[in-house]
Specification:
This protein has a domain at about 175-340. About 45% of the residues lie in helices and about 10% in strands. The protein is built from eight helices and eight strands. The longest helix is centred in the middle third of the chain and has 34 residues, at about 200-235.
Length: about 350
């Protein structure tokens, strides 16, 4: 059966004699195409790739559809055509269904034609009344907040939150997200001097306290992602899910993250980190805990954890340098963990 609308997309037949089609997709308003990981165990799946081929790229706009694509979340590698989205498939199916209905109606109209009566026979007249054709579905690519330009190959892509790989070149990209988050924290720390002049020291101290909390969140969030990625590569899905559920708030402590990586993955995330640098970071984490859970007032637990001798009940002081030193150490440790895993 000939497809009236889809015929222009037909590229030939496969070895079994079945028609093959190639349907071009339209980029969204930002110039991105939706893609979805074919790995059933991949949780996030959906991402988008840009339609611009950077200068110097090995592929061209004409050949890009035939390249291998890497899932930015789980690292699955397959041909580009395997990364179709469910919405795209439903859109194409709806076009085929519409064509089938139209072709069937055309066939009936050709088969049922007026016949002249002949002597001695009863004349029966039939007429085909065609209804409305099924509508073609429309799909809209999802909005993704995080747009990335790969610092290795130059391709643009968009993801939910963070990614481990560039979809086009497959190289690691988590470090880009990490540095972006760290850069924001450094800006907050630098702004504290201006805030102090314009709005007072108390406001600047609050800003620095919030920035220090962001440092701990940066460590916790990225180390969780690195651990999840690694444990899913090592263990069956059910076991990996159980290991991940055990994390809870353990990654808000350096020792907690260290134990998970050491016991479950056999990795030493603080290897090569100077003991003094670790003590400095431990102190920063202790300060964050005090800010979050004790209004920033010195207690005995903090004095023990940070090996500090401030007066009990005194207000904690967070300096600009505290924040900068802490975020730099976190970037160094997380990058080291990324290298160990990838």
């Amino acid at each position: 059966m000939k497809y009236d609308t889809m015929e222009k997309y037909r590229t030939g037949r496969n070895a079994e004699g079945q028609d093959q089609f190639s349907v071009p997709l339209s980029a969204d308003e930002d110039g991105f195409f939706g893609r979805e990981c074919p790995n059933d165990d991949c949780e996030t799946k959906y991402f988008k790739i840009g339609n611009k081929v950077p200068d110097g790229a090995e592929v061209t706009a004409e050949s890009i559809s035939g390249v291998d694509l890497t899932c930015p979340y789980c690292g699955t590698v397959e041909k580009m055509q395997r990364f179709f989205t469910e919405a795209q498939v439903e859109w194409i199916k709806s076009m085929f269904i519409r064509d089938v209905h139209k072709a069937f109606g055309d066939m009936l109209e050709r088969a049922v034609r007026p016949q002249r009566p002949t002597g001695g026979f009863i004349s029966v007249s039939m007429k085909v009344k065609r209804g409305a054709l099924p509508s073609v579905r429309h799909y809209v690519e999802e909005k993704l907040k995080e747009e990335v330009t790969c610092d290795k190959c130059g391709f643009e892509y968009a993801v939910y939150g963070i990614s481990f790989h560039c979809p086009l070149c497959g190289k690691g990209s988590l470090g880009q997200h990490l540095e972006s988050g760290a850069a924001t924290i450094r800006v907050l720390a630098e702004e504290s001097n201006r805030i102090a002049k314009d709005h007072g020291r108390a406001v600047a101290d609050r800003l620095l306290g919030n920035a220090l909390e962001d440092v701990v969140s940066l460590f916790e969030g990225f180390m969780k992602h690195v651990y999840r990625y690694a444990i899913r590569k090592k263990q069956p899905k059910a076991d990996a899910d159980k290991s991940i559920q055990r994390i809870r708030t353990n990654f808000q402590r350096l020792s907690g993250a260290e134990e998970f990586f050491r016991n479950d993955l056999g990795l030493e995330i603080f290897s090569g980190i100077d003991s003094k640098d670790r003590e400095t970071l431990e102190s920063a984490f202790a300060k964050r805990h005090l800010l979050t859970h004790n209004l920033g007032l010195i207690d005995e637990k903090y004095r023990s954890q940070a090996d500090a001798w401030e007066r009990l009940g005194a207000e904690l002081v967070v300096s600009q340098q505290d924040v900068v030193n802490a975020v730099n150490q976190v970037v160094r440790i997380v990058n080291q963990a990324i290298e160990l895993v990838l």
